[in-house]
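Good morning C.,

I know you're traveling, so I'll keep this short. The sequence:
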Amino acid sequence: MIAPEVPANEAERMALLRDLQLLDSGADAGFDRLTELATQIFDLPMSMITLIDEDRQWFKSRQGLSVCETPRRISFCGHVVADGMPMVVCNALKDPRFSDNPLVTGSPFIRFYAGYPLFAAPDLCVGTLCIIGTMPRAFEDNEMHRLALLAAQAEELIKLHVARLQQNQG
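The tokens, ready to paste straight into the viewer:
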């Protein structure tokens, strides 16, 4: 297993993540509708909106998964945040970064992963919108476009959350 790298702008990224006041916040119907829609669009059992802090991957919204967080060092999404780029893993068992990852060798038995970065400010990726399957599969360009559209909507929800915070403080 290859743990995700830490982005060069980690201190600034973490300050922004804290300022967002989304970590450990309650359920949000808008985010939950997005993850539900993602599972339906891609016909996959799991989807999440994740936020990556110093030690963990926390799920702001999740479908098909009972846990609310996993360690950052074993997260697939941590790689997306580190690179600031979308990532697709068609078969995690055949990918040296993940083949011995406990999320692959044990529950939830990830085989397919596609994650799209969520930026709360330019060059500051705070998390992902990701979809996960228990069977290997291909991922076409048109599917990446759909995932990008859903991620853009998640970013808009983050902006709305920030605007509500500012309105309540002002």
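Safe travels,
E.
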